[in-house]
Amino acid sequence: MRRRILLMGNPNVGKSIFFTELTGIHAMSANYTGTTVSFMEGKITVGGEEYTLIDVPGTYSMTPTSEAEAVAEKFMQEGAAAVICVLDASNLERNLKLAMEMMQYNIPMVFTLNMMDVAERHGVLIDVKLLEEQLNAPVIKSVAVKGKGLEELITRLEILLKNKTGCGRTCEGCPWAAAKEICTQVRTVKPQNPGFLDKLGDAMLNPFPGLPIAVFVLALLVGVVVFGGRGLRMPLIMLTDGLVVPFFRQVIMGVFSFFTDVENMGGFTNILLEILIGEYGIFVISFQWIIALILPYVFAFYVGITFLEDSGYLPRLSVLFDNIMRKLGVQGGSLIHVFLALGCAVPAILGSRTATTKKERIMIVTIVCFAIPCISQVGALIALLSAFSWWMTPAMVLFAMFMFTTVAFIANKVIKGKVDPLILEIPNLLLPNPKTYFRKLAIRMKHFVKDAEFPMLIAVFIAAILAGTGIITIIAQNAVVQNIVSGWLGMPQEAVVALILGIVRREMSVAPLIALDLTYLQVFVAGVVSLLYLPCLSVFGVVAKEFKTRVAVIIFLGTIFTAIFVGGVVNQIARLFM
Amino acid sequence: MLNLYKAKKGRGLCVVSVPDIDLLQNLGLREGTNISVKNRYALGGPVLLRVEKSFSVAIGKDIATQISVKETNK
Question: Residue ranges per domain, chain B?
């Protein structure tokens, strides 16, 4: 504990930015509360000695109100060499109140008045010298996203650690009274005329023009994904199909002809060749699916969503749609998790730790697992659907919204407990800082490639072996499988590959279908099944870890059943009219 | 004294009493806090408050109806 330095403060004051700047390890950040739900740690050197810096989830007080906040209290209990307490300069009183509570733990503290630029824009002036006297601890000014104040922070931290003093003042009476008293002494506010971003931020919150703006922003996000993804795909398809795949084919054929007579080779070598470079060969689909199909859409999505996250727009959506979300059994704040889940369900399920009741959290996880597709899968779906007709994608979006509503409605009836009403702080609307934005985008792509690559390769490998050896035909001709796939769902036999691979990763429940010759109805049914089909293995891992294995098993079986059931119903009903 | 959910938009208000919810207290919504209503949302949506002219908080209807306020001249 003596080697620990804690980064603490209210939610959304910039702790994770400090962490990233100080340790070089990237901590996820965004412009709303609750981005850090678990802690991160990294090494920093202060005065020639090495310490562990811990990015603690933000909290409003030392009496926690959610799972994520409880982590903060635990760290203070365990003690540390020093605490860096990050204060939002434009919300001084509330931030100082937490500071007062933290001082009760007798740990040396250094304060940083962060987001000074935003505060100054709003006409807030703070007398730092006086604040230092009042707190009996060092205080510095900073703008973390621009790297301002970091050197001074380290210098002051070094002095603090050397002297081991300055555990601040002891708070008399209620922390609020003390915070208020200090605040009136050190702060002067000259009201400023609101700038453009402040006006826009307010307009986005007003039902009019807020709702039309919301529709526009969401349409823009869809546009960026659909058209941006497609635009990026074209050169990548040319590259893989025109260059990379033929190159590997040539090389592998070359190696094979060196050992055997390729024209008249036996069964085993033939199978091996199929696995490597056949229609479903590893060197074919790993490029065609992963690089040319999935990656462009993932990238386009993160370009859009990262911008929205860092601007502070998502909490505004939560407020605008709280009334509708409440009717579905969750509060508007949960909308942020749903948006995160559109990227990947794993961070969304972890992020739902900020939920204030058990029911809220289980509702979020249920909705995410049953009704929200992830972006890799959405990309594959768009590629499949838009190859047929322009109206297929919008139709699927409407269907997805219908399923979202239905799942939430049923879950609300089944899951017992209550959901707390919304209490959500709305951050200032900000133009994302380019450095932070691009760093985050880069890190997300890196994570995607790192986390997704291995399972995708496994799926590709399984696909190659199933197809190359002919096992797939044996499974497809099984009577039960045939009844489900061909009879109930009305799909061709080969579609069984998609259902098997979809267990490993979600986009793999779509990718194998793209090369098949399908009818309109088959494409739509395939889309429906994929949309509702089980989330990938990583999601089961995280659900089992956060809840119980039993919950993961229920979701596993439940999603397979609903996907095949609903897909079949769509197929059977459509057939009545055809 | 009136309930926050029914308070007029844009008027200066002072909080008289709040329900015993930790998060409200921690955000600084306590007896004597100066607030104003910025927006109210239809269909049982929340109210959006400006607290001490420094930050905005959205409060769900169920809680807003339990908060009582009085108008100030500010």
Answer: 2-71
